[in-house]
Amino acid sequence: MNLSPYPHEPQVLLRRLRWVLAAFMAGLVLSGVTAFPLQLELDQLVAFRGLDAANAPAPTNGLDAWILTVRNGLRDMYAHYPWIAYGTDWLAFAHVIIAIFFLGAFIDPVRNVWILQAGLIACVLVIPLAFICGPIRQIPLGWRFIDGSFGVFGAIPLLYCLRLTRQLATARTPPTSINAGTPP
C-alpha cells in the first residue's frame, strides 16, 4: 500500500475509490448469491438456534417466531409452488448484474459518475420500498428497519466514492486562467 504524502494525488484517490467500490460490489454479489439457497440457509439457522429440536420450546421472542414463520413458509412454498422461488433466483441474478454495472465506475469513475449517482438513488429508494411494501406483505416492523438499513449502509460507501470522484475530477482538470491567451 502506497502511503503517499499527497493523499489527493489522482492515483491515491483512484486506489481508495476502487477498494471501497470493490467491497460494495462484493457485498452486492454476496447478498445476491445467498438468495439461491434460502431454504437450506433457514433450515441451518433454525437448527443453530435450537428451534427445530423435538423438545424445543415455543419461541419466546419475535425474532425466533419470525424465523420459524419464514422457514415454514418457504417449506410450504417449495413443496407446493416451487416456481415461486424463481422470483428469488431473479433477485439473486439482479444483485450480481447490478454489481457488474458498477464496473464502469470502477474503471473510470469520473466519466461514469452517473453509475454512482444511480446507485445512491437506488439506496434511497430501498427505504420507502421497505416501509410501503413491508406492511402489505406482513413483514414485521423490525425487519422493515433491517431492510431499510441496507439502503442506508449501501449509501455510505457510495457517498464516499462520489466524494473521491469529485476530487479526481478536480485533480484531472487543468487550472484555467482568466487571461488565457494574453501575455503576462
How would you describe the overall organization of this protein?
The protein has 184 residues and is mainly alpha-helical. It has a domain of 71 residues. It has seven helices and no strands. The protein is elongated. It starts with 9 loop residues before the first helix and ends in a 12-residue tail after the last helix.
In short:
This protein has 184 residues and is mainly alpha-helical.
Features:
elongated, 7 helices, 184 residues
Strand and helix map with partners:
Layout: H1 10-33, H2 38-48, H3 62-80, H4 85-101, H5 103-107, H6 113-136, H7 141-172
Helix pairs in contact: 1-4, 1-7, 2-3, 6-7
Number of strands: 0
- Class by alpha and beta content: mainly alpha
Shape: elongated
- The number of distinct helices, counting runs of at least 4 residues, comes to 7
Rg of Cα set = 23 Å
Low-confidence stretches: none
**Taking all residues together, what is the mean pLDDT?**
89
Q: How far apart lie the N and C ends?
A: 43 Å
Q: What is the helix/strand order? A: HHHHHHH
Fraction of residues in β-strands:
under 5%
The helix content, as a percent range, equals over 70%
Largest sheet: none
